[in-house]
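Lab meeting, item 3. Inverse folding demo.
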């Protein structure tokens, strides 16, 4: 699927062309004449992924300062929330985490706010561009900027290659996997945002292979996030699980 790049205002056209060249995507100067169903739009405030059509999702972008991220940071439950318990967070030292399927970075941001140092690894150049833009804006925020700058790091790469390339002393405490969920037959249950992302970046059909690599390169545990009723990833069974109303965390302990 072809995704183009455009600028909302003529003043940003040169930046949009540079981004298109960086990502290897076509620059768009006339959206009406384009057959792209999705495009990255450089607005005065941020970078957005937009979708064409009567049932299109709203603009998709990374925002660590406001909205859902701010709500989770303030009211998500701290270290008692299921994500934190799945990671093994306690009153001890902060953990090093590789979020191997970073996506829009929401869980990585929560973990950084809880004290973890998180490598966000994303192989989709489009999602990596959205993440980079969100990190840039968040870094200038007086409230969360220091935590974002110190604890969140972005790598645009295939996580299998990234993990295998780590030196022994760089191996993380935890590898976190949140693979793109398989398509549901009842499409009405799929949020528009998730549907649009799936159309642009595809599904993570190689998630079992990533799990196998993660188990070899982690020091403490691998955590896999799944819909509560979804099957486990192919491979060894998890050691235990943590359940929330709609989500399940499969935990694969590998060390202390």
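The presenter then showed the designed sequence:
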């Amino acid at each position: 699927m072809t995704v183009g790049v455009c600028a909302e205002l003529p003043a940003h056209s040169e930046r949009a062309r540079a981004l298109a060249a960086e990502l290897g995507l076509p620059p768009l100067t006339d959206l009406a004449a384009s057959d792209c169903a999705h495009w990255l739009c450089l607005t005065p405030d941020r970078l957005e992924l937009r979708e064409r059509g009567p049932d299109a999702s709203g603009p998709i972008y990374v925002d660590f300062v406001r909205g859902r991220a701010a709500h989770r940071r303030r009211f998500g439950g701290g270290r008692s929330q299921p994500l934190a318990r799945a990671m093994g967070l306690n009153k001890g030292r902060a953990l090093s985490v590789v979020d191997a399927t970073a996506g829009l970075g929401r869980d990585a941001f929560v973990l950084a706010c809880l004290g973890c140092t998180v490598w966000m690894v994303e192989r989709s150049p489009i999602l990596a561009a959205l993440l980079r833009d969100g990190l840039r804006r968040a870094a200038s925020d007086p409230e969360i900027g220091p935590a974002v700058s110190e604890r969140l790091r972005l790598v645009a790469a295939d996580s299998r290659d990234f993990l295998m390339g780590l030196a022994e002393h760089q191996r993380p405490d935890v590898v976190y996997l949140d693979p793109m969920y398989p398509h549901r037959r009842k499409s009405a249950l799929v949020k528009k945002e998730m549907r649009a992302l799936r159309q642009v970046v595809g599904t993570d059909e190689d998630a079992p292979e990533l799990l196998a690599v993660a188990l070899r390169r982690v020091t403490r545990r691998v955590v896999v996030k799944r819909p509560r009723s979804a099957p486990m990833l192919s491979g060894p069974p998890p050691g235990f699980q943590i359940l929330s109303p709609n989500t399940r965390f499969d935990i694969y302990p590998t060390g202390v």
